Amino acid sequence: MRTPSIPADNRYPIIGWKEWLFFPDLEIPAIKAKIDTGARTSAIHTFSIEEYTVQGQLMVRFGVHPLQKRRDVELFCEAPVVDRRRVKDSGGHTEMRYFIETTVVLGERKWPIHMTLTNRDRMMFRMLLGRTALEKRFIIDPGRAYLGGRKLEKAYK
Predict the structure, then answer these.
(1) pLDDT tens digits in sequence order for the chain, 157 residues long
(2) Which of 1, 35, 75, 102 is least surrounded by Cβ atoms within 10 Å, i.e. has the fewest?
(3) How far, in Å, CA of 75 to CA of 88, rounded?
(4) Is 54 helix (H, G, I), strand (E, B) or coil?
Protein backbone atom coordinates (compact mmCIF):
# COMPACT_ATOMS: atom_id res chain seq x y z
CA MET A 1 0.00 0.00 0.00
CA ARG A 2 1.44 3.38 -1.00
CA THR A 3 1.82 6.14 1.58
CA PRO A 4 -0.35 9.18 0.80
CA SER A 5 1.60 12.19 -0.46
CA ILE A 6 2.34 15.09 1.83
CA PRO A 7 1.17 18.40 0.32
CA ALA A 8 4.00 20.49 -1.15
CA ASP A 9 5.04 23.71 0.58
CA ASN A 10 7.04 26.27 -1.38
CA ARG A 11 9.18 27.05 1.65
CA TYR A 12 9.93 23.45 2.55
CA PRO A 13 10.64 20.89 -0.18
CA ILE A 14 9.75 17.27 0.54
CA ILE A 15 12.55 14.76 1.07
CA GLY A 16 12.47 11.05 1.78
CA TRP A 17 13.80 8.96 4.67
CA LYS A 18 17.09 8.47 2.80
CA GLU A 19 18.81 10.83 0.37
CA TRP A 20 22.09 11.36 -1.48
CA LEU A 21 24.18 14.28 -0.17
CA PHE A 22 27.14 16.22 -1.58
CA PHE A 23 29.79 17.90 0.62
CA PRO A 24 31.66 20.40 -1.57
CA ASP A 25 33.96 21.75 1.21
CA LEU A 26 35.10 18.22 2.04
CA GLU A 27 35.26 17.12 -1.62
CA ILE A 28 32.85 14.23 -0.95
CA PRO A 29 30.90 13.98 -4.23
CA ALA A 30 28.21 11.68 -2.85
CA ILE A 31 27.20 9.86 0.31
CA LYS A 32 23.90 8.16 1.10
CA ALA A 33 22.37 9.52 4.28
CA LYS A 34 19.57 8.45 6.57
CA ILE A 35 17.33 11.41 7.34
CA ASP A 36 17.16 10.98 11.10
CA THR A 37 14.84 13.24 13.07
CA GLY A 38 15.62 11.14 16.15
CA ALA A 39 19.25 12.28 16.08
CA ARG A 40 19.92 15.84 17.20
CA THR A 41 23.28 16.08 15.46
CA SER A 42 24.41 14.91 12.05
CA ALA A 43 27.19 12.31 11.99
CA ILE A 44 29.50 10.97 9.30
CA HIS A 45 31.53 7.76 9.27
CA THR A 46 35.25 8.48 9.61
CA PHE A 47 38.49 6.64 10.26
CA SER A 48 42.13 7.62 10.86
CA ILE A 49 41.29 10.93 12.54
CA GLU A 50 44.36 13.10 13.13
CA GLU A 51 44.31 16.48 14.81
CA TYR A 52 46.75 19.29 14.08
CA THR A 53 46.92 23.07 14.43
CA VAL A 54 47.22 25.78 11.78
CA GLN A 55 47.81 29.33 13.05
CA GLY A 56 46.17 28.49 16.38
CA GLN A 57 43.12 26.78 14.79
CA LEU A 58 42.56 23.13 15.75
CA MET A 59 42.05 21.08 12.57
CA VAL A 60 41.26 17.44 11.79
CA ARG A 61 42.26 15.24 8.90
CA PHE A 62 40.17 12.11 8.47
CA GLY A 63 39.28 9.34 6.09
CA VAL A 64 35.80 8.55 4.79
CA HIS A 65 34.50 5.39 3.17
CA PRO A 66 31.49 7.02 1.47
CA LEU A 67 29.97 3.77 0.19
CA GLN A 68 28.57 1.16 2.54
CA LYS A 69 30.32 -2.24 2.39
CA ARG A 70 33.12 -0.81 0.23
CA ARG A 71 36.55 -0.06 1.63
CA ASP A 72 38.13 0.35 -1.81
CA VAL A 73 36.75 3.91 -2.08
CA GLU A 74 38.59 6.14 0.39
CA LEU A 75 38.46 9.91 0.58
CA PHE A 76 40.59 12.05 2.89
CA CYS A 77 39.24 15.34 4.18
CA GLU A 78 40.38 18.26 6.34
CA ALA A 79 38.28 20.67 8.37
CA PRO A 80 38.53 23.11 11.26
CA VAL A 81 37.22 21.79 14.57
CA VAL A 82 34.36 23.86 16.01
CA ASP A 83 33.99 21.79 19.18
CA ARG A 84 34.85 18.52 20.86
CA ARG A 85 32.39 17.06 23.32
CA ARG A 86 30.68 13.93 24.58
CA VAL A 87 27.86 12.56 22.45
CA LYS A 88 25.44 9.80 23.40
CA ASP A 89 24.60 7.40 20.56
CA SER A 90 21.28 5.61 20.03
CA GLY A 91 22.53 2.68 22.14
CA GLY A 92 23.16 4.97 25.13
CA HIS A 93 26.97 4.86 24.81
CA THR A 94 28.89 8.12 25.10
CA GLU A 95 32.07 9.05 23.29
CA MET A 96 34.14 12.18 22.70
CA ARG A 97 33.60 13.44 19.17
CA TYR A 98 34.96 16.20 17.00
CA PHE A 99 32.39 18.64 15.60
CA ILE A 100 33.05 20.32 12.28
CA GLU A 101 31.05 22.81 10.25
CA THR A 102 30.71 22.18 6.54
CA THR A 103 28.40 22.83 3.61
CA VAL A 104 25.91 20.15 2.56
CA VAL A 105 23.94 19.98 -0.68
CA LEU A 106 20.67 18.03 -0.97
CA GLY A 107 18.92 18.41 -4.30
CA GLU A 108 18.76 22.14 -5.03
CA ARG A 109 19.38 23.21 -1.41
CA LYS A 110 22.80 24.15 0.01
CA TRP A 111 23.44 25.18 3.64
CA PRO A 112 26.01 24.94 6.46
CA ILE A 113 25.70 22.20 9.08
CA HIS A 114 27.57 20.98 12.14
CA MET A 115 28.34 17.27 12.18
CA THR A 116 30.30 14.87 14.30
CA LEU A 117 33.03 12.50 13.20
CA THR A 118 32.59 8.91 14.37
CA ASN A 119 33.02 5.29 13.34
CA ARG A 120 29.78 4.12 11.72
CA ASP A 121 31.36 1.07 10.09
CA ARG A 122 28.78 -1.35 11.47
CA MET A 123 25.83 0.94 10.82
CA MET A 124 23.54 0.71 7.80
CA PHE A 125 24.26 4.31 6.72
CA ARG A 126 27.62 6.11 6.59
CA MET A 127 25.85 9.40 7.24
CA LEU A 128 23.02 10.61 9.45
CA LEU A 129 21.45 13.98 8.71
CA GLY A 130 20.06 15.02 12.09
CA ARG A 131 17.18 17.24 13.05
CA THR A 132 19.28 20.36 13.75
CA ALA A 133 20.44 20.32 10.11
CA LEU A 134 16.89 19.65 8.88
CA GLU A 135 15.01 22.14 11.03
CA LYS A 136 12.91 24.66 9.06
CA ARG A 137 14.31 23.40 5.75
CA PHE A 138 12.36 20.30 4.70
CA ILE A 139 9.24 18.22 5.11
CA ILE A 140 10.14 14.54 5.48
CA ASP A 141 7.97 11.87 3.88
CA PRO A 142 9.01 8.65 5.67
CA GLY A 143 7.35 6.51 2.99
CA ARG A 144 9.55 7.80 0.17
CA ALA A 145 13.26 7.91 -0.67
CA TYR A 146 15.67 9.85 -2.89
CA LEU A 147 13.29 12.72 -3.62
CA GLY A 148 16.35 14.98 -3.93
CA GLY A 149 17.45 12.89 -6.92
CA ARG A 150 19.73 9.94 -7.59
CA LYS A 151 22.30 11.52 -9.92
CA LEU A 152 24.95 11.56 -7.15
CA GLU A 153 24.64 7.77 -6.92
CA LYS A 154 26.81 7.51 -10.05
CA ALA A 155 29.67 9.61 -8.59
CA TYR A 156 31.94 6.60 -7.93
CA LYS A 157 31.23 4.50 -11.04
Answers:
(1) 455 555 555 688 999 999 999 999 999 999 999 999 988 999 999 999 999 999 999 999 999 999 888 888 899 999 999 999 998 777 778 889 999 999 999 999 999 999 999 988 778 899 999 999 999 999 999 999 999 988 888 888 7
(2) 1
(3) 26
(4) strand
Residue at 71 is within a domain: yes
| 3-class state of residue 131 by DSSP | helix
Our separate counts of H helices and E strands in the chain read 1, 11
**88 located within any domain:** yes
Alpha carbons 148 and 18: distance in angstroms, whole number: 9
pTM of the model: 0.87
In a domain, 22, yes or no: yes
Is residue 20 in a domain?
A: yes
